[in-house]
Amino acid sequence: MTSLKGQHVYFEIQNRKQNLTTAKVSFCSNVDEFSGIFCENSNKLVDLESFLDAAKAFSLPYLGICTSLRQLIGVLKGMEEEETDKKMRTDEFMNSKKSHEVLVMSQLVNCLANYCGIKQVIDLGSGKGYLSSFLSLHYDLKVYGIDSSSINTSGATERNRKLKKYWKAYQNHSGGGSSRDPMSEREKQRTAQYNMMCKETVSGKHLSSNISSPCQDQVIKSGSPSETNVHPVVSAMIGTDKETCLHLAGQPEPEEDELCQHAFSFLKILPTNAVETASSSKSFHQGDLCGEEKEQKKTVNIKAKADKLNESNVYSPLTSYITAKTELHDIVTDLEDSMLVGLHTCGDLAPTTLRLFASKPEIKAVCSVGCCYHLLSEEFENTAEEFTQETWGFPMCQYLREEAWCCGRNARMSACLALERVAVSQGLSPESLFYRAVLQVIIKECYGVTRSDGRVGKVFSKSSSFPDYVRKSLKKLGLDESKLSDSCIMDYYEKYRCRMNELEAFNMLKVVLAPCIETLILLDRLCYLTEQDDVGWCGLVQSFDPVKSPRCYAVVALKK
């Protein structure tokens, strides 16, 4: 079977190389067809329909490049189905988005690990350890979660400790199977305790706040599914009607206080060998045991302690800053044949993950989902400046490097937009965009600030009015908000209010282009992998529902 699967993978990589070549030829041959989209003299957009067609044609779903998630898992598993994953309810200890991502990616990672015959997984940019914990608890993999933030790793350690504390409850609960009697009062009490722990973990009472990039989780303001309005431009772009968009939208995310109502169904998915041995329901005095029984009990206790020691190392959160030159042996002291994973690795960490995979012989596979394209470093963005940096986030492949290709920050910012969410009215509201645009004018004209690394964040959802929004934003940016009166702030609002529709139209054009820019970045990474001699197979896999998780493409590769 392994030989047969190997042939599948070999032929797949050959097809992938052919598709990349075809896509390149197709792009070059179609450039002339779209040359009339913009006016030759003014460069203004003159043919909107052709613009939409071009943007659609050069996005990943329409290039024939991607590998089907179902087909890939089928090949890796020898066409066997795994029933257990269909019954999981991970949304009881994660929000709906994170639960969806962890459930899908953990299954794919487990299939890759089994295919390669490895048990060690290194999760780069592991954050609070949601994926790492699940891989270790459910799939019994030895996982090292590495994050540059000590706040994240300490939070992951605390969260994992709380989960392990309740493994004993799982053993007691699972003993009788589905036909067991109703829970005893003691079990109900334990359930209530676990529910409280989950709620505290979700609300962050026992964890430090997560450090995340603003581009990954956009503010979503949407009504019920029946009230969803599909923007006609986006509908034309993705080729869907209102019913399809409503289907994509799925169910609304549960509130935090609903996430842990049935805690024991999470405990059901834990492997039995991950559970601490429960103490006997009867207590015995040492004098009640014969010599042989005492020896047996001693042996059992020693084994239980050894199992507990091994279990405590199943998932290990570590703090370290990772670069392409990082020696993993220095961080993971018992490094063996393993695979690298990354769930929404930010900025340059995604290409760094691929470079580590290519350069380290002990890394046999990689599964990387990147995000925060606006934080990528570009080799040819500021050619006039001198840099000592040796590796860059973009471009990676030889072809684009020879072309000295540059996207620029504005394009990379656009790549972070979520077309599918906008299609079901779950994108940023037009008013939020307008507030942000006018704020930038105020900062430039009243404070002389033209560039800043400061972030406003989700101030819009917490503001009662435009003056309130401006004042809260100025405070976050460290600027003196008392310098401006409310009337002065409202004068700016009234001055530009007539251009709100213009701003919305401009943003919609950026949204339509977003998949094309993301495609360029992801194909660059895929081409880089095809250039490596020891890579046996690589592909782009749409792993997630793009409405739930806009950064939904995984770069997957296997060594020969």
From TrEMBL:
It holds the Pfam family Methyltransf_32. It comes from the Eukaryota. Residues 97-180, 285-378 form the Methyltransferase domain. InterPro entries: Methyltranfer_dom (IPR025714), METTL25 (IPR052220), SAM-dependent_MTases_sf (IPR029063). PANTHER family: CGI-41 METHYLTRANSFERASE, METHYLTRANSFERASE-LIKE PROTEIN 25-RELATED. This is Methyltransferase-like protein 25 isoform X5. The gene is LOC115477839.
